């Protein structure tokens, strides 16, 4: 398909998923509400052809921010029973900090909004207009970063913990498997909806869902109080992707506040936190035994020595020095970069738990590719960056705007399908962004 037709098709996906209330669903039926990190990537795509919709996307997400700065991973703007777990399960009203006017979840997702606001600024023709918008939103994003550093950084290391696998964005990664072994949740009675929309071989198992639900039950018993959750959650992890995105967003907020002027205190705060985060992401999350960054399990005080696409995300925030960046690049190409594989598989293709079909256990995801693309460019690994971009576009062109894709060139050619949700918004949005680059 020509570049122009692919962009037109991608725009139609985004327009089709945009809702009257001013937000975009990730995918019809499978994800019928507003998701936090999806919205950030979607806003980037929308900004290429309809800046007003991009602004609405961000505005409606931030309209659901909690009083303590927390931004939920799902905002339930409308009623819809095609998704589990919905608003009645999450029960955000249990927290005195949650908004009264709208129902949300009580877990979060990677903090993309800082770099998204800066991207919107860089893209906009009318800088005065976009700065007006940024001025109306930036303090909410700043408040969110303060929330992370004051509530989610229990050792004062500049490294934020997540308390649920859904907070990582990489929902069922093999990285979590050993944590599940420390739990023994009851077999909950619930009705999965995702597997009525998507083949169950592409989704997490019911037993995995028992664990996901069990942690949310614990958070609800704690009325979503961070101190109680940090004390009791069996899942407490410092994630390289989450922290790299926070650092990259700190950077953007600092630059935007400088442009806006008169925000010295905030800039000082962000700079000092960012410095600590950068030092400790390298000290604590770089794992020389695997030649990549890895997750740290705060519950048992150990690194989780597994490599997934998140392991390379510190390139995106400029954490590694040149020598470390070269090591990361070598690990990426040695393990993930074989020529019969598309870049970048979500989990180590040489790992025992790699699964080409299952959600975050192996398939290629376009948003992670976009993050790695920009990370590699930051270090001038132009050839590999180009390959990630071309692989992403080839997958979308061949199979459509799916949620994720089989990483093996041979298997995907034989099966000729993409996986998960169809007409998936961030896949479309980031395709537009890739194709719009000069
Ligand atoms: C899902 O339901 O799989 C979502 O990713 C959780 O937010």
């Amino acid at each position: 398909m020509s570049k122009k037709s692919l962009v037109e098709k991608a725009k139609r996906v985004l327009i089709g998923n945009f809702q009257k209330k001013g937000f975009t669903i990730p995918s019809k039926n499978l994800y019928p509400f507003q998701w936090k990190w999806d919205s950030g990537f979607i806003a980037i795509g929308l900004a290429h052809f309809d800046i007003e919709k991009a602004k609405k996307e961000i505005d409606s997400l931030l309209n659901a921010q909690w009083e303590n700065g927390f931004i939920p991973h799902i905002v339930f703007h409308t009623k819809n029973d095609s998704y589990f777990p919905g608003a009645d399960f999450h029960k955000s009203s249990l927290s005195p900090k949650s908004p009264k006017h709208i129902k949300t979840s009580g877990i979060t997702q990677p903090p993309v909004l800082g770099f998204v606001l800066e991207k919107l600024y860089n893209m906009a023709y009318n800088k005065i207009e976009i700065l007006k918008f940024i001025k109306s939103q930036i303090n909410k994003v700043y408040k969110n970063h303060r929330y992370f550093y004051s509530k989610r950084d229990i050792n004062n290391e500049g490294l934020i913990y997540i308390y649920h696998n859904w907070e990582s964005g990489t929902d069922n990664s093999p990285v979590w498997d050993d944590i599940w072994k420390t739990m023994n949740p009851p077999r909950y009675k619930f009705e999965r909806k995702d597997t009525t929309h998507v083949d169950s071989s592409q989704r997490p198992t019911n037993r995995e869902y028992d664990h996901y639900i069990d942690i949310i039950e614990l958070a609800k018993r704690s009325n979503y109080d961070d101190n109680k959750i940090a004390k009791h959650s069996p899942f407490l992890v410092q994630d390289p992707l989450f922290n790299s995105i926070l650092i990259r967003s700190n950077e953007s907020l600092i630059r935007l506040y400088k442009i806006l002027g008169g925000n010295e205190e905030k800039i000082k705060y962000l700079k000092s936190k960012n410095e600590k985060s950068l030092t400790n992401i390298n000290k604590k999350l770089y794992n020389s035994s695997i030649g990549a960054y890895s997750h740290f399990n705060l519950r048992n005080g150990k690194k989780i020595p597994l490599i997934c696409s998140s392991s390379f995300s510190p390139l995106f925030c400029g954490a590694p020095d040149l020598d470390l960046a070269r090591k990361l690049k070598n690990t990426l190409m040695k393990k993930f970069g074989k020529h019969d594989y598309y870049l970048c598989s979500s989990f180590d293709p040489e790992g025992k738990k790699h699964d080409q079909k299952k959600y975050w256990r192996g398939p290629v995801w376009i948003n992670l590719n976009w993050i790695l693309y920009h990370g590699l460019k930051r270090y001038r690994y132009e050839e590999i960056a180009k390959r990630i971009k071309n692989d992403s576009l080839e997958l979308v062109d061949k199979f459509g705007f799916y949620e994720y894709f089989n990483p093996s060139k041979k298997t995907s050619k034989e099966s000729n399908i993409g996986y998960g949700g169809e007409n998936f918004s961030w896949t479309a949005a980031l395709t537009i962004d890739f194709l719009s680059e000069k």
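The CA atoms of residues 96 and 223 lie 8 Å apart. The longest helix spans residues 127-151.
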